[in-house]
Specification:
24% helix; homodimer; 442 residues; alpha/beta
């Protein structure tokens, strides 16, 4: 009988529990979760703000539905005794402390929204967008807000800005990097997204750092270099920081990204403890380098591997390609693998091609533009990454993910089989057009 | 200087001309095409009938836009002198005959709609749906028609039936096989499509052969075994027959499917003559067996290879997986590789899994069902085929096409990277769910 204890019941912890349960019918599986409700869907929050999802309660699963798993809500993990193999926990209602013995421990402690240490960060109406409570607070503030500033133009920032604009607020989106969606897109592709945001009425300011938030009690303006922007609502969307406190206290090693270091079985420096999800370091499948993935999909994929391994299996987590999709004021934007910028930084000599196609035949109503940028190694033209903008971008990024994983070249990509029917797609697949453009670069 | 002559200016011929032009700046390229307009988009015809495409003229490209290629419209190829390497052609307006010398000849003669030799087939208001003229005739007949029978429930038949129903006609769809979309789907998956068609008000009759069409001058009923269905409009959509007359007269070999036999460079039995598109035999990438592909995408892919080879290159056409998508009364249906039925016929021992997921998170408006069936080899679980129904089916089939081409197993498919954002997809990719279901079959 194996006793598996899991800390955290979001995407990673939930999936690990389910995978362990499936793999080993005998294991005794306990999950402790600080929240008083089971799981929620953080990626849905921007769409609650925008009104597409009518009720924030819809994002919350109040009770765990996982037969054969003992899920203890409202219970916080306080310390790990790695010698005795005990997890010390505290019930947040009764404040009672107890020790839970484990044979295998899985840390899925997640991450928290990053709040920069700038003056005014604690003013009223300055929010993050990470928890259900964040969402509720912003919803409550919406009706008395007119001018919003969103700081950070990653996927969440872009979606939040789009949502607030949709709700009729004046919105300024501020990004420190020279272009929006900096991790996902090269600047040439980001320009198209910024254009769409501007068209929707969002003022986009890049290469601007926030110096200070001003106001009395509540925020009234955001101070950038050389500019002060009036604002009665601010959303900080500059990223998340991994929750590694428990691991550090237990003496587990951190990796170069300051996340919990894990091997390819997702074991930490203590072989009986696994780490998964936003608190665990991932590895880039292309470069082999450690990176912060912190995606729900990565959490789920890691959860599956660690759950099986903790239950006695032998699964390998090979790494991530960071396939990401976001909606920018109705524009579908997806990315996978390395951008040209990231590929150069990683030491690759690259060859790139950018093409513009239609999502359907020109004569079909609803045909829209699709822009694709492919990044390949100059020699041999192995695909390293892709950026896709337009309806159906996510599907193309998923296909590119597979192509990258399989080490495919532009030549091979130009020869793929694909479907065609006018209401769905054009007779020449945009990815093939992009691959052929790369071939002409040889 | 190479003289390349191409017969036929649809998907295959057009692509071959363009590819040859790109590959060899010196080549002299001539295309002869019987039609008086350049190309048209036959796959768009059902959507003209349904009204989504407002004008049938939108499907026609009246003038060829291919710089550096001499396209001769209204000119019919009559005979090939393989000894002298001359193509005999006739101008259909002047009736003048001439001989065009070639170094390489590419046959892209296409196919014609199949008309079964049953009584009444030549009655008025009995149509095929293949050419622009077919479309125009049906459009003209629509206003005076009330009851339609569509014979053949392949993609075109299903789309035509959906279109006529959309226009308000009473529609009966008759299929000889036991289920709709027989080449694309196994019967268990076809049931869902038949249900959707029925819901749209189409009467679907399977396992029924048409014996006779009755009427005086114009059709008034369709006679099946044991049933006579009143009809004032009939569309025959039972398939196409390859146009191989020119090739046969020239002594070129046909393959077991009675299409022009070609090698992996798309050369016919005469090494200076290539054949591509609907008239040329394709090969299944999985079984290696000859098959009738007759898809626009196959024509395009073949055109590229033959165009380059005719111009002095060395490209291989590896075969097809027959990725197909169709719309059944608004339902997206896609298929790739082998169905379970086809896999068994090809001698595979198979393992299959069918799952039902959502296209988006349950809380997101517009989330709809997606059904996926995967077919794998029982041993080792190499993926052989997939059938997908629901929004985004085509993208999944494209991804499966790549997985099949790369010889991926269910295990590998369960580990893919994919994108997630609530407006676009759920946090667990349906293909992963399907792959995991297959894994549990081991």
């Amino acid at each position: 009988l194996t006793r598996i204890v899991i800390v955290g019941f979001q995407s990673a912890g939930l999936t690990a529990a389910a995978a362990a349960r499936l793999y080993n019918r005998e294991a005794e599986i306990t999950v402790v979760e600080r929240r008083t409700y089971a799981t929620y869907h953080p990626c849905g929050l921007p769409f609650v703000l925008g009104g597409e999802v009518p009720n924030i309660r819809d994002l919350v699963e109040t009770t765990p539905r996982l037969p054969g798993v003992n899920v203890r809500l409202g219970v916080e993990a306080k310390a790990i005794d790695t010698q005795e193999k005990m997890l010390e926990v505290q019930d947040l209602r009764t404040l009672q402390v107890e020790k839970i013995p484990y044979d295998r421990l899985i840390l899925a402690t997640g991450s928290q929204a990053l709040k920069p240490p700038i003056p005014g960060i604690d003013l009223g109406n300055v929010f993050c967008l990470r928890t259900v409570e964040d969402g509720q607070r912003i919803l409550a503030a919406l009706s008395r807000s007119r001018r919003a500033v969103v700081v950070g133009a990653g996927p969440i920032g872009v979606e939040a800005a789009s949502a607030l604009r949709e709700r009729g607020l004046e919105v300024v989106l501020v990004e420190m990097q020279p272009a929006v969606l900096p991790g996902m897109l090269d600047p040439d592709m980001a320009a198209g997204v910024a254009e769409r945001l501007a068209k929707a009425g969002i003022r986009v300011l890049c290469s601007k750092a926030v110096k200070e938030l001003r106001g009395e009690g509540e925020v009234s303006s955001v101070v950038l270099e050389g500019e002060e922007i009036p604002a009665d609502l601010v959303i900080m969307a500059i990223g998340v920081k991994p929750d590694v406190e428990l691991a550090v206290k237990a003496g587990l090693k951190l990796g170069p990204t300051r996340m919990i270091a894990v091997d390819d079985h997702l074991r930490t420096s203590d072989p009986d403890i696994f780490a998964i999800g936003d608190c665990a370091e991932a590895r880039c499948l292309i470069t082999g380098r450690p990176l912060r993935s912190q995606l729900a999909t990565t959490a789920i994929r890691m959860g599956r591997v660690a759950g099986v391994n903790a239950a006695g299996g032998d699964e390998v987590f090979e790494g991530v390609l960071n396939a990401v999709v976001t909606m920018a004021s109705g524009l579908e934007v997806a990315s996978v693998g390395l951008t040209a910028t990231a590929a150069s930084e990683a030491g690759f000599e690259t060859s790139t091609a950018r093409v513009r196609c239609l999502t359907k035949p020109h004569y079909f109503p609803g045909a829209g533009p699709m822009t694709i940028k492919l990044v390949a190694e100059r020699k041999g033209q192995r695909i390293l990454g892709g950026q896709v903008i337009g309806d159906g971008a996510a599907g193309r990024a998923n296909l590119l993910a597979l192509a990258i994983r399989k080490g495919m070249t532009a030549k091979e990509l130009s020869q793929i089989d694909y479907c065609y029917a006018p209401p769905v797609s054009d007779s020449i697949e945009p990815l093939v057009v992009a691959a052929e453009a790369l071939l002409r670069r040889r």
